[in-house]
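Session log. Operator J.P. requested a structure for one protein chain; no other inputs attached. Running the standard single-chain path with token output.
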Amino acid sequence: MTHRLTGCCHCGAIGLELSLPRPPEAETVGACQCSFCRKHNARTVSDPRGTARLTVHEPAQLQRYRFGLAASEVVLCRRCGVYVAMLMVEDGRAWTTINIDALDERARFTRPAEPRDFSGEALGGRRERRKARWTPTELVGWPEEGG
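Structure written below.
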């Protein structure tokens, strides 16, 4: 059974859909220990057997932020400031880990967040791990880089 969840940033400029093979109550929740995620108190979920869709309803409000090794980018809303997801794009394919607090049914993720520290990971290993563990994602209404 597929469990379909929806959500968006606070103002609705960036929407998201997440389909998971397990109920949210059974999903592993992560707590990245990088300074960005810690400052946002982010709790994330990803499952390579699921699917996600990020829809940009208002392209002018999409804010992308890269830091560290720049292996991925944070998806934020410029207007309301909500951190929606971490996104990695390579060879026309995309993968995300979703900030569960941007989901409408965030309370269903009841497992405690597990701390994760990837600070010692090299760029190549980081990209391969994300391809193997993050959720395959469709980007809808997505402006080109720099757009």
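Operator note: The domain at 3-140 is CATH 2.170.150.70 (Metal Binding Protein, Guanine Nucleotide Exchange Factor; Chain A).
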